[in-house]
Amino acid sequence: MSKKTIVNPKLYEIIENAPEEEVSRQEYFIEKLRDEVEIREKRLGRKLKCMVNTFGCQMNARDSEKILGILEKAGYEEAEDEKHADFVIYNTCTVRENANNKVYGRLGYLGSLKKKNPDMIIALCGCMMQEEHVRDKIKESYRYVDLVFGTHNIFKFAELVVNSIYTNKQVMEVWDSTDKIVEELPIVRKYSFKSGINIMFGCNNFCSYCIVPYVRGRERSRKPEDIINEIKTLVNDGVTEIMLLGQNVNSYGKGLDNPISFAELLGQITKIEGLRRIRFMTSHPKDLSDELIEVMASLPKICKHLHLPVQSGSTEILRVMNRKYTKEQYLKLVDKIKAKIPDISLTTDIIVGFPGETEEDFDETIDLVNKVQYDSAFTFIYSKRTGTPAAKMDNQVPEDVVSKRFDRLLKVVQEISSERMKKLTGGTVEVLVEEINSQLEGYVTGRLENNSIVHFKGEHNLIGQYVNVKLDECKGFYYIGSMV
């Protein structure tokens, strides 16, 4: 960056003195941001507060923990809501267009808050920002937004904030792609005893309804030694359960200089002392290997829960979705999994009303659900996603038809889920206590290995502990239990 392009001499001096190595560089900019925070605190006579609002998936949640970690290291305290925040950042999702509309609605509210607090910093990041038409709208209609960045340069957050403060202009820096993976930055975890771990980024699958490959980029796997070291650090800090995150974890490792399979990575992770539970998501059915099934069956630290999105039970719809498997292949895979892991808990995603879906196609979905017997399913009504091939298809299913199908599917899913959960009623299971129950006074909430939830009487000191709980009563989607 030349001196001529930097209006503020102080900013020029800061950038000139910044280290080149990325982790050191960002730590340097965190300190510069902290200096600015201290100046503003002295002027205002109070601590500055921040709020990170997360929309979307668990990978976004993990990114938000990094953002909050940087802000807290820079001196901000976490605010309860936007109204009491001096720095608000929305980490956006763009899987569905109504998520975009929700963000636009919240931005209007932030604009009114900024009029009352001119020093307020408003930032936007995440998948939604990767779309050019979104950025154009922000430039035109939301000029009071101070900072916009995307999914590929989140690690430069502190540097971008400093740039925004010193230029006093809207900073918009969104990369189309990157080969950089920078994870060694401050982080504030929601839970002290469990954490998500990014093992890869991006997606190569290009399902016809999905915007993710366009906004997250191509698949990039982290080096296994970096993942192992991060998990060891977390375990030393009290973490006993980790969730390995990726758009398609089953294809982990293929692009590395020394290729390694996801199953091999799991084998290495299970050797970490002090780690008790390993979860992962999401698994694409086309890439789920026999090797992975064997590893899940043989290694007790790996939770016997598998989220295996099917999306549709119709082979024809799956073809149009570009899912690269048939109904029969999916069912054969499920049979193979259940044969090796009889107590496996299977969950899935299903889209209702995909373009061209006939009544016969939908019946195929119901048939598949009945055959698989999912423990639970996330069911979605298809909605057009601008920028995807499916949005251009002209054989969209009428809303009233989709609504009836959705209700029918939901009823079947709920009935099966309830029956499967009842089978564990009366038994005693190991539970990781996660939080105080906000609805039932004197109760805590814990999670079974199969990802089910149980509420039982307990105190705050149980949080983060593994306890044995008898499942006294099944309430459909959760249990009421008692500690034994």
What does this structure look like?
By secondary structure, the protein is of the alpha/beta class. 38% of the residues lie in helices and 20% in strands. The protein is built from 14 helices and 19 strands. The chain has helices spanning 9-16, 22-44, 58-73, 97-116, 132-141, 157-167, 212-216, 224-236, 262-269, 290-298, 315-321, 327-340, 359-372, 399-422; strands spanning 49-54, 77-78, 87-92, 121-126, 147-149, 171-173, 194-198, 200-201, 220-221, 241-245, 277-281, 305-307, 345-352, 376-381, 428-436, 443-448, 453-457, 466-474, 478-483. The chain has a six-stranded parallel β-sheet, sandwiched between helices. Strands 15-16-17-19-18 form a five-stranded mixed β-barrel. Strand 15 and strand 16 (443-448) form a beta hairpin. Helix 2 (22-44) packs across helix 6, helix 9 runs parallel beside helix 10 and helix 13 (359-372) packs parallel to helix 14 (399-422). The mean pLDDT is 92.
